[in-house]
Design goal:
Blueprint: H1 5-13, E1 18-20, E2 27-31, H2 35-45, E3 54-56, H3 60-66, E4 67-68, H4 72-81, E5 86-92, H5 98-101, E6 106-110, H6 115-123, E7 128-129, H7 144-151, E8 157-158, E9 171-176, E10 179-184, H8 190-197, E11 200-202, E12 226-229, H9 232-238, E13 244-248, E14 259-262, H10 269-285, E15 291-295, H11 303-314
Parallel strand pairs: 1-8, 3-6, 5-9, 10-11, 12-15, 13-14, 13-15
Antiparallel strand pairs: 1-2, 2-7, 3-7, 4-5, 5-6, 9-10
Helix pairs in contact: 1-6
This protein binds adenosine monophosphate (AMP) and magnesium ion (MG).
Residues 51-54, 89, 101, 104, 106-108, 131-132, 169, 172, 183-184, 213-215 line the site of adenosine monophosphate.
């Protein structure tokens, strides 16, 4: 763990992997233009090769080095939200190797909003392919220590940039036949996107079909069983024989004989998003807990993205 951008740049130039901080979650980064390096990312994560990687770039202008036929609405979205938690799926140029995109003719591009990582990207003459820096399927890392806990032996360095401010992954947006499509809910709400792009279709992909890559159904998952419902009280009753951790939100009263993890007692969605993955990790490590129960958040603001992550964590 180290906070030297120069050290990170030098490892990356030597074709090694470095975990990098972003405002969403920590990424496991390598030279996106070098297929052999990109393969090392898949190996370190044990990630299936049909799941494409997001390419991180230092500026809006850089998007045009790696993508072509960029629709005007994509430029508007970049203008409004970059640097920020928005990934744009665009037609790729040939310089992006097929391993990055799992053979698709599109590439996911993002300009992250983190000072250290932007400085790093500006120091390199290649973009960084970076999926979240966790073993495939497990909870995404939101601190440098989370990365160290699981991937230390497989990477050259973790660039420590503190805790991630947003805490859930980027919102992924693509363009099909003149339509703007949200493929993954994330740090920007559907409403945020709609305000800039106009009409937006939400088409969340939960298939594991390699032809339709995207979000796999089970993801972000702790090893303990997690159950989720609207009615928290009923859910707690149904699991009362187990040692419970209760994930809740806002102004709720839960019997304090359970371990209570309130994502945001004041009902602040941003705070809830930034706590979610860290809470799941803490609970997963506790030997005195068997089962996790969670209440759905209200379906507004970042509530959509947080509920999506809870649902994927619940699928076994
Ligand atoms: P992450 O594990 O957070 O890096 O997310 C990578 C995700 O980005 C993949 O699972 C896909 O859902 C999405 N993605 C990346 N590139 C593309 C693409 N070209 N087309 C569609 N989705 C993409
Ligand atoms: Mg991931």
């Amino acid at each position: 763990m180290n906070s030297s951008v120069a050290d990170a740049a030098s490892f990356l130039r030597n074709d090694e992997l470095v975990a990098i901080p972003t405002e969403t979650v920590y990424g496991l980064a390598g030279n996106a233009l070098n297929a052999a390096v990109v393969l090392k990312i898949f190996e370190a994560k044990e990630r299936p090769s049909f799941d494409p990687l997001i390419v991180h770039i230092p500026s809006k202008e850089a998007a045009l080095l790696y993508a072509e036929d960029v629709p005007p609405v994509a430029l508007k979205l970049m203008e409004a939200f970059w640097p920020g938690p928005l990934t744009l799926v665009l037609k790729k140029k040939d310089c992006i190797p097929d391993v990055v995109t799992s053979g698709l003719d599109t590439v996911g591009l993002r300009m992250p909003n983190h000072t250290m990582t932007l400085a790093l990207l500006n120091n390199l003459d290649f973009p960084l392919a970076a999926p979240s820096a966790n073993p495939f399927g497990y909870i995404s890392p939101t601190t440098a220590q989370h990365v160290m806990d699981q991937l230390d032996s497989k990477i050259a360095m973790v660039l420590d940039g503190g805790a991630c401010k947003v805490g859930v992954e980027s919102t992924i947006v693509g363009f099909e036949d003149g339509e703007t499509v949200i493929y993954r809910l994330g740090g920007l709400t559907p409403e945020d996107i709609r305000k800039v792009a106009g009409k937006v279709v939400i088409r969340i992909n939960s298939s594991s079909d390699p032809k339709a890559p995207g979000m796999l159904k089970s993801h972000y998952a702790p090893s303990k069983p997690l159950h989720i419902a609207d009615d928290l009280k009923q859910l707690i009753d149904a699991n009362k024989e187990s040692k419970l951790a209760v994930i809740c939100f806002g102004d709720v009263v839960v019997d304090d004989k359970h371990a209570i993890y309130n994502l945001s007692p004041t009902g602040d969605f941003s705070e809830a998003a930034s706590n979610l993955f860290a809470f799941l990790r803490t609970i997963d490590r506790r030997e005195d807990i068997d089962v996790i129960v969670a209440a759905y958040l209200p379906e507004t603001n970042l509530g959509f993205a947080i509920n999506d992550r809870l649902e994927r964590a619940a699928v076994k």
